[in-house]
Amino acid sequence: MAAAVSEFEPWLSAKLKSLKTDEGVFGHYISGILESEESVDEKKDALEGILSEILESDISVHVNEIIEKWESCKPKEETLKPVADVDVQLAKLIESQSLATTTRREYTDDEKKIREAILSQYSQLSDNEEDLEHEEVTDSTDLVKNTNALDVAAAARERREQARLEAQRKKEKDREDREKQKQLKEEKKEKRKTQKGERKR
Question: Which of 23, 27, 32, 45 has the fewest CB atoms lying closer than 10 Å?
């Protein structure tokens, strides 16, 4: 894209100067639109939006001229290159995979016997281990389930009991507080009466 930019930018600057506008500001906007991944129609719409700020007439003529110049400056082989590279890489990858699958190791008779002995030993071990694991799982799951259910029920009972006791304590405390307040009021009334009685004397 560098070659396209090096040819196109001087042309665009001259074009914008001929339209009596600031090529520094509008040139960057226009280049950004052209370099984007949008379709040609979307680019045209965006360019028309920018040029409508500068021009009053022949906007589509100038937009088409800018697009055509951009397309002519853009190198054609650039779009084909990545496809060729992908094809070459894919061919190399397929070759390397086919080479890997064709080379197969042949075992001697002794190696085959050793291999079979090891495999049979492991298969016996794994069968025994599976049996042991199965037994452990069946034995332990029943216990876990039962104790878990019992624990949950006991914890719920304990929470209910605790809540009931808390509620009882709160009731008693509230009653005591009310009685104290009543007593304080009575005492204050008595004090006032005695003070009034003393004043009268």
Answer: 32
Summarised one tens digit per residue, pLDDT across range 95-151 is 766 555 555 667 788 888 888 888 777 777 666 665 666 555 555 555 545 677 788
**12 and 23 in contact (C-beta within 8 Å)?**
yes
**pTM of the complete model:** 0.36
